[in-house]
């Protein structure tokens, strides 16, 4: 299972269907995507779900990112899916 961070100037619909297990919208512009599919597949499915011409960036998360000020539960959601850095 992989986790991707998606940014778009358009809002990713909360109920959008695609090749993912779960979407977690952090803000109107940022969404976390849990999927077994490739970066390309996730990118294209999100692209097709957004209005024509919408800006979109999708990147895999290899480690848990440092974060602050995001919705409650975001750190736990990431901790459940991505191992932390080696100590």
Which key phrases capture this entry?
single chain; 87 residues; alpha+beta; Alpha-Beta Plaits; 4-stranded antiparallel β-sheet; 2 helices; 20% helix; globular
Mean pLDDT: 93
Named CATH architecture = 2-Layer Sandwich
The domain tally reads 1
Q: How do the strands of the widest beta sheet line up side by side?
A: 2-3-1-4
Question: Can you count the beta strands?
Answer: 4
Proportion of beta-strand residues: 25-35%
Helices, by number, come to 2
CATH topology: Alpha-Beta Plaits
Structural class: alpha+beta
N-to-C SSE string, H for helix and E for strand? EEEHEH
Give the radius of gyration: 13 Å
Low-confidence stretches: none
- Roughly how many Å apart are the termini? 23 Å
Assembly level: single chain
Any overview of this molecule?
This protein is α+β, with helices and mostly antiparallel strands and 87 residues long. The longest helix is centred in the middle third of the chain and has 11 residues, at 39-49. Strand 2 (22-25) and strand 3 form a beta hairpin. It has helices at 39-49, 74-79; strands at residues 2-8, 22-25, 30-35, 56-60. The two termini are 23 Å apart. It has 2 helices and 4 strands.
Topology record:
Blueprint: E1 2-8, E2 22-25, E3 30-35, H1 39-49, E4 56-60, H2 74-79
Antiparallel strand pairs: 1-3, 1-4, 2-3
Short description:
The chain has 87 residues and is an alpha+beta fold. The protein is 20% helix and 25% strand. A 4-stranded antiparallel beta sheet has the order 2-3-1-4, covered by helices on one side.
């Amino acid at each position: 299972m992989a986790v991707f961070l998606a940014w778009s100037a358009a809002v990713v619909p909360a109920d959008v269907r695609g090749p993912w297990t779960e979407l977690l919208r952090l803000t109107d512009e940022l969404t976390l995507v849990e999927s077994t599919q490739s970066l390309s597949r996730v990118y294209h499915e999100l692209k097709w779900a957004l209005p024509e011409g919408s800006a979109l960036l999708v990147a895999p998360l290899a480690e848990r990112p440092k974060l602050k000020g995001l919705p409650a539960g975001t750190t736990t959601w990431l901790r459940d899916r991505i191992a932390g850095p080696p100590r």
